Each structure stands twice: as structure tokens, then as C-alpha cells.
Amino acid sequence: MYVQLNCAIVDADAANRQELAAFLSNSGVHTAAQFGEVAQLGTILGRPNAPLLIIINLDPDPRQMLQRISQLPRQYPQTHFFLMSQVLDPQLLMEAMHIGVREFIPLPISPEKFAAAIDRSANAVGMGKRARVIHVVPTIGGCGSTTVACNVAASLALQAKTVLIDLDLIRGGVASAFDVRPRYTIADVMDAAEKADPTLLSNALAIHKSSGTAILARPDLPEDTQRVTAAGLQRLLTMLGRMFDYVVLDSVMSVDPLYAAAIAAADMNVIVAQLNIPSTKNAERFVGALRRRGIEGSKIRLVINRYVKKGSDIEPEEVERVMGLKLAWTIPNDFKNAITAINLGEPVVIRAPKSEIATSLVGLTATLTGKEVVSSANVRAA
Questions:
Q1: Would strands 206-207 and 214-216 be described as parallel, antiparallel, or unpaired?
Q2: Per-residue pLDDT tens for 332-358?
Q3: Where are the domains positioned within the chain?
Q4: Was domain 132-381 assigned CATH 3.40.50.1100?
């Protein structure tokens, strides 16, 4: 099971507990327990799987509550205690810090400051937001963007924790490309993302044995795509961002709210095109849309798939001139190896790691991450 950032809430007001749990969910934190009394913390503290965070509302009597919990931070030094109160008494703050409280959160909560406090604690134990999000977008059907996304994810997974999400909700073929049969899909974890349920999320991820890629598949039923929302995707990406090193999204060309959320979350938007007029025209339109949405050029990469040196409808230099964007990478046309890998349900970087197309896809992965990527051929040789 993948590790998730957990917490427990102590607040006499049940409505406050629910509201805080919802806020924590949006920050990628799972609320493992909610209590009305501080004495109930004894049921979870000290266990091997005890929550990392304990968030306690000191009100309505901050000094009395502080006295009641004064021994806990020293008794459980690995646990991060956050205290909240409407009372901003300097003496109260000093006493809280003296007993080992990590953070004091003034009420009402400032979302930005509270989120920053959570990140500080997560970073302290190596569970900070760290995933790099790579968003792969096709310009026309059949341009090979799913092949690119799957092989980039598989290349990354050989040396880092990587999850691949199928955001082509109707036609997506990620599960087939890895020959896996997931029990659950992205539609099933929308509720899990809202509740920050790490168990269901972990169970929903199918694992490709050869590469170690974690896969979240598209919905089985087309009507279930309506359960996938922009807000749910944002929560999901926040949770996965704490659990993985890389999140790869196999997407579609759209600026609808769901895909706008993916675009905004991405560290790199990879636009996959071919050197023909329909594909490059769509690439130009979409890059223009990204620029109008304020996406920096450093977060846009144009990749040409099925590249041949002679016989293309358009020259690469012409595409660069029209779009005002340098080509990030060209992937050679190797239909035989590519289609064999697709039909057998194994990425080409795993099945034929020494082929020209696999070498190129590993090189693309390195350019997208800024790090050297080890090919599966080297991994197997080692």
C-alpha cells in the first residue's frame, strides 16, 4: 500500500470537525479519526500506524485544554501536534511552543497559512508535495500520444514511484497498453478523493509488474465519466502528489474545466503532433489557448511522433516558425515495434528496449524531467 499523510482531529463541535476534514482532504491529508474529547486520543497514539498529525481545537477554554495535552508532544515526539484557537495570547503561544507543539493555528483559519503548515510537517518526514506532473495531449486521433504517455511513465517507473492516469475518459487505452485489468477506475475514486480514503485509492491502482507503473484506468462505462470532476481531479492530484514522484496524465485536447485543471496542475504540458497539416494546425490552436491561459512557455513541450526525415507534409522548421516554439523532441517512425508492443500489452521501452523508438522515448523522458533516465535494457543487464 502506498503511504498517505494521515491526521486526527479533536474538536468538541462535530460540524467544525467535518469542515476541517474537508479542508484537509483538499490538501491531500486523510483524516483517520475525529474525536470530541482529547482523552480519546489514547485509542490511536502510540500505534505503529498512528496519524502523523494531531489537530486540536483548544477552544472554548484554551488554557485548560493546553494543560490537559501538555504531556502528549513529549510523550509522542514523532507526532506533529497542531493547536487551534481564537485566543491569540502571547503567553499561550509561548507555553504551546514550550511543550513541543509544532504549529499554532489562529482561528478563523487562513487557508494559505494552514496549507503551508501542513506542507512543513509533510516535508519534515519526507512526505511533502513532490510529484512532477506530466500532462500528455494529442493533437489528432491516432497521433500516438497514449504510446508516448505510457512509455514515459514506464521509463520513469523503473527508477521512481510513478502513477499513470487515463484522462481519455471515453476512448482511453492505458490499461490495454499495459495489459492490466483494474478492479476500479478513476470514476470510483472520485468519492475517495473527496474523503481522502487512501485504502480505496491504493486498491484502485493497478500495478504493471514489469515496470512497476501504477495505473488508474478510465471508467468502464461511458456514463460514469460524468462522475469525474475538476474538483475531484484536483484533490486526487494533491493526494497522489504526496504518494508518488511522478504523475503522468494521458489526456485529450480540451480546455473544459476537467482538462483545464490538468493543464494548470501540470509541470509540463506535452503536445504530441505529427508533421501533417491537420495535426500541426491543432497544435498551433492549442498552444495559443495555453498561452492565453497564462501557461508559461517553459511548461509547454511540442513533440513530433512518427518522424521521418523525408516524406513529411511539413518541415519541422516551418512548424517552429509558425508556432514560435522549438520542437522539444522527435520520435522516429517505427510502426512495427510500436504496434507489436500495443497488441501485446507491454510498453515498447520494456518489450524492445534497444530499439530506436525505445531509445528515443527514454531520451524524451530525460528531457521532460531534466534527469538521466535508465533504460529497461540497462536495468535488466544490471
A1: antiparallel
A2: 999 899 999 999 999 999 999 999 999
A3: 6-124, 132-381
A4: no
